[in-house]
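Input record, target 12 of the design panel.
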């Protein structure tokens, strides 16, 4: 370039770390383009996504620190918004040379310092981490194609019943007749699935379920099992009373619950005699648990715990089976498909066994619902009742984290065997005869038909009311239309009389027929009883219009069957309720709100007056969709999803990191090995242990907080004393001079002093390090007065921004019921953890964050103040930008290095977003010193050096003798101390550990607080064992640096 000598180079520097944070000598170097040397280009710079970055060009001398900035006034600005983002500051002169084909793949440009943003598009740099990340996604998709279910896999399909019939012969033997071998099609889901099983998987699939007969004779059970084994069926033998009580519990209680009906209030139910049996019965719930345990025991006895085994459980009868099976066979890949609807959190939170049901479903690898609305209800319930978090992986996979495991949540509605049903309609003359008979009953009328169950969700009363008003309002249609209603009467055990719903429906039908019917030509016909697939197809074939007014239904297959019934004439119309699952996929159907009578009437009038061309067009749209679905493909696709979830290793995960930033990480991070930590702990000379408090050392009870206006002091809210065993472990670790143990918490100093003040030599950081008690002060008096504070940052400036934030947040507290204001020495927070409407509260929190965040420019309320805004889990916090757990961890590590030299072992454990700063500091420290922050696997076949525990679980703290291998100045045995060998074998390790498996900067994870406690106990036993060795009473070889002596 003109004006630039050979000893100079052009760099670009700016306001992000990748561009050197305005340090000229650290900025990205621009070099002459190989094609056009007059054009300077970079090799690619990773840039933060969707964040404004200011930058400038600077000419730097290669040998001296001299530099010349470009003369353009102000800073240039860029906001990366595409997968590949090209920054052009030459007016696009060389665009065709620099970009080429890559430009066509991305539509995001930046010209002459002005950003052209594409909202919602996530960008990555041209040649930074973007290409490898894109390649990892492509690699993931390629592996998914390879991970297909095949004959080598063993698949267990668990249903309530088996897809077969048993018949006892006169000889005493049992005859098995499979549903797939029968001439007619059984409408049971298990039978349709068995018929649609692909030929290549028939040998791999085993069906598990009740055989349909009850026997307690072991010899009979053996004969039945042998007869079914030939057909790959595994029976679950049940007591008849268990089956009866379970079915009544499911039909009377669980079915209404799944369809969003509250049936738990005895007072309200006493008024409605129909609902007196719908209340929750503890005895039936216990029978339901026994029922599910029996299924789990049978599956456990058959499965092989390897990657070839897949277990797919179906429907709400077996909601507890996944949990029971996982407890018995934790290595088995379990999937669950719910054929019914799923309730909203408003209903789910009311039932007594809510946690048991949700935890069982989360014991699966994959949970599938009919439609996404039910999946959304499930996620809301898990978030509200179990405090579980969900996120998206690459390729749009929705996951929820529970028990440190990843559960995939899907929506994929059931598919009918369209081709087989069409063939049935073609060859079975009985269907056409029955359809013609129904048409003759109505004459030349247009027939509205429906098939519904005798249950409150069918909406039959609403349908009859709308039809009656339709005839009353539209006299011209009185003799042109008729209604055929088939009621699938379900009589539960103990029910002897006709339901009140059925009685009312018949009464309304009689009134319609008296007013609008004629002798031999009724306006409404009602039929009762269970019907076969043939009968259903006949009814729907006779109908001109399918009229469904269900107020809640899982999927409702009858609209699909309607398309099958009219596959030959290609004529027909559908009016469907917007509250059934199939309405979301049938775009040609007219959707109505069944509660809105006028809307239903308008839909019927529209159908009656509709021209043939429009009617045929809408039908063909839905028929083409239904005919394109294959049950065999649906079955295989779901099994493939389960196998891929079972085999998943690595691949990028997208979630929320510290401060709500989008975080990508590799899912290959591993569960922490206690043996690995103990091995490296023994070899270390100088150790630092950094621990979070709540959620790590103790369960997180911070959600148990007082509502606005309560009198309890805020700093006492959610307190729970630590386990005495944990305190004992901390004391044992602090007694080892090679250890520096620090607890870093967001709690105030008073609480920290109350909890940990009795532990000698323990370092403590309150409010993320704004107040602290350094270690190495064992003889200093106890109490809050020993706490140090960052006084240099707590002046008038702090008072100013705190006053502004408190004033603003008090307005939010007044307007958002259940939220509170939390004021600390270094931060002010608006806490909404206990707000009932969490979705609304999160939107408010996001708006508040944007209004306060100083990085948003002069429009921000906090612009110019030395603060940052954190939108955390249930809170929005404004805090000093120089106060966080990362700063505290850095201060501890630096002080230990100054006092004790090299730190060769760091164990850092935390559970939430505030701990991510701590993980980042430790990881960076390890990187600077060339230390491994993620340990490699090593064999641990050496004798255990940890002292044993007695039966009560209390520590005996006895030396284990020959297995102890410690060569460090604070804890060593003399005959094993060899400085040369010790230095030679020394391997520095830094461990960053998050509690709960989730997106994190940590290299390892522990499942829960219990595993943290187990690890600390083993470390404490090791520390105490070293202190009680037979040479521990000898004088220290190296004098203590703080002047104390043993």
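The sequence produced for target 12 reads:
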């Amino acid at each position: 370039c003109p004006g630039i000598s050979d000893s100079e180079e052009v760099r670009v520097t700016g306001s992000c770390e990748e561009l050197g944070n305005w340090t000229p000598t650290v900025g990205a170097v621009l070099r002459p383009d190989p094609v056009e040397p007059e054009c300077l280009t970079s090799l690619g710079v990773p840039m933060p996504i969707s964040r404004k970055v200011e930058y400038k060009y600077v000419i730097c001398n290669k040998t001296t620190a001299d530099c010349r900035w470009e003369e353009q006034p102000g800073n240039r600005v860029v906001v990366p918004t595409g997968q590949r983002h090209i920054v052009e500051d030459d007016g696009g002169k060389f665009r065709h040379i620099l970009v080429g084909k890559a430009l066509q793949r991305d539509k995001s440009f930046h010209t002459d310092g002005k950003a052209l943003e594409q909202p919602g598009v996530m960008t990555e740099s041209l040649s930074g981490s973007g290409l490898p990340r894109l390649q990892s996604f492509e690699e993931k998709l390629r592996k998914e194609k390879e991970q297909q279910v095949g004959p080598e896999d063993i698949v267990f399909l668990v249903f309530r019943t088996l897809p077969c019939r048993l018949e006892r012969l006169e000889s005493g033997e049992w005859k098995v007749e499979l549903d797939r071998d029968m001439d007619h099609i059984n409408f049971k889901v298990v039978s349709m699935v068995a018929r649609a099983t692909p030929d290549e998987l028939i040998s791999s699939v085993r069906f598990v379920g009740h055989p349909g007969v009850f026997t307690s004779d072991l010899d009979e059970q053996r004969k039945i099992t042998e007869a079914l084994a030939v057909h790959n069926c595994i029976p679950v033998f049940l007591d008849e009373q268990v089956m009866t009580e379970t079915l009544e519990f499911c039909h009377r209680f669980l079915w209404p619950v799944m369809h969003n009906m509250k049936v738990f209030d005895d007072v309200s139910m006493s008024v409605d005699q129909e609902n007196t049996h719908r209340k929750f019965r503890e005895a039936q719930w216990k029978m339901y648990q026994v029922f599910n345990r029996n299924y789990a025991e049978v599956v456990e006895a058959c499965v092989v715990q390897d990657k070839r085994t897949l277990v797919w459980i179906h429907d709400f009868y077996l909601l507890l089976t996944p949990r029971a099976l996982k407890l018995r066979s934790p290595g088995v890949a379990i999937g669950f498909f719910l054929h019914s609807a799923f309730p909203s959190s408003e209903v789910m939170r009311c039932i007594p066994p809510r946690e048991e049901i949700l935890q069982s479903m989360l014991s699966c690898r994959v949970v599938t619902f009919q439609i996404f609305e039910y999946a959304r209800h499930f996620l809301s319930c898990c978030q509200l009742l179990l405090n579980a978090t969900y996120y998206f992986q690459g390729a749009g996979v929705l996951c929820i984290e529970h028990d440190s495991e990843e559960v995939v949540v899907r929506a994929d509605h059931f598919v009918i065997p369209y081709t087989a049903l069409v063939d049935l309609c073609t060859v079975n003359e009985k269907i056409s005869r029955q359809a013609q008979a129904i048409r003759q009953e109505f004459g030349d009328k247009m027939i509205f038909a429906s098939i519904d169950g005798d249950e409150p969700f069918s909406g039959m009363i609403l349908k009859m009311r709308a039809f009656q008003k339709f005839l009353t309002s539209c006299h011209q249609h009185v003799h042109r239309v008729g209604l055929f209603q088939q009621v699938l009467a379900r009589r539960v055990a103990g029910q002897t009389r006709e339901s009140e719903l059925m009685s009312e429906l018949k009464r309304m039908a009689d009134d319609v027929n008296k007013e609008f019917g004629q002798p031999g030509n009724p306006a409404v016909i009602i039929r009762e009883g269970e019907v076969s697939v043939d009968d259903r197809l006949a009814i729907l074939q006779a109908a001109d219009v399918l009229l469904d007014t269900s107020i809640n239904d899982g999927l409702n297959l009858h609209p699909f069957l309607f398309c099958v019934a009219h596959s030959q004439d290609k004529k027909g119309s559908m009016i469907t309720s917007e509250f059934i699952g199939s309405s979301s996929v049938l775009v040609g159907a007219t959707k109505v709100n069944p509660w809105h009578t006028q809307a239903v009437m308008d839909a019927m009038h529209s159908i009656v007056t509709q021209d043939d061309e429009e009617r045929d067009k809408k039908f063909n749209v839905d028929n083409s969709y239904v005919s394109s679905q294959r049950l065999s493909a649906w079955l295989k696709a779901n099994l493939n999803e389960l196998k891929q979830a079972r085999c998943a290793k690595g691949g990028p995960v997208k979630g929320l990191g510290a401060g709500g930033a989008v975080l990508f990480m590799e899912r290959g991070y591993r569960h922490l090995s206690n043996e690995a930590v103990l091995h490296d702990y023994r070899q270390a000379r100088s150790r630092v242990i950094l621990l979070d408090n709540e959620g790590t050392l103790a369960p997180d009870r911070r959600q148990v907080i007082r509502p606005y206006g309560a009198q309890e002091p805020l700093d006492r809210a959610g307190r729970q004393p630590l386990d005495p065993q944990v305190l004992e472990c901390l004391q044992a670790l602090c007694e080892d001079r090679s250890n520096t143990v620090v607890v870093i918490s967001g709690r105030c100093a008073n609480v920290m002093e109350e909890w940990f003040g009795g532990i000698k030599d323990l370092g403590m950081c309150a409010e993320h390090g704004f107040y602290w008690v350094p270690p190495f002060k064992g003889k200093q008096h106890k109490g809050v007065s020993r706490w140090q504070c960052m006084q240099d940052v707590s002046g008038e400036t702090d008072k100013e921004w705190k006053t502004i934030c408190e004033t603003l947040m008090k307005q939010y507290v007044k307007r958002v019921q259940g939220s509170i204001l939390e004021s600390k020495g270094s931060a002010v927070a608006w806490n909404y953890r206990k707000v009932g409407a969490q979705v609304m509260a999160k939107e408010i929190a996001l708006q508040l964050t944007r209004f306060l965040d100083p990085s948003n420019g002069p429009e921000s309320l906090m612009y110019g103040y030395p603060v940052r805004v954190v939108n955390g889990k249930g809170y929005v916090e404004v805090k000093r930008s120089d106060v966080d757990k990362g700063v505290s961890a850095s201060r501890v590590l630096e002080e230990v290095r100054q006092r004790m030299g090299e730190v060769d072992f760091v164990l850092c454990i935390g559970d939430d977003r505030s701990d991510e700063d701590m993980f980042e500091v430790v990881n960076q420290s390890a990187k600077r010193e060339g230390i491994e922050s993620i340990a490699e696997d090593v064999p641990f076949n050496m004798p255990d050096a940890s002292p044993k525990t007695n039966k009560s679980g209390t520590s005996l703290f006895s030396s284990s003798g020959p297995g102890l291998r410690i060569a460090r100045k604070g804890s060593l045995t003399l005959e094993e101390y060899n400085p040369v060998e010790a230095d030679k074998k020394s391997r520095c390790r830094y461990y960053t550990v998050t509690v709960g498996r989730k997106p994190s900067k940590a290299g390892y994870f522990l499942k829960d607080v219990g595993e943290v406690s187990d690890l600390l106990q083993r470390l404490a036993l090791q520390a105490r064992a070293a202190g009680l060795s037979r040479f521990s009473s000898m004088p220290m070889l190296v004098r203590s640096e703080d002047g104390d002596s043993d």
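The mean pLDDT is 79.
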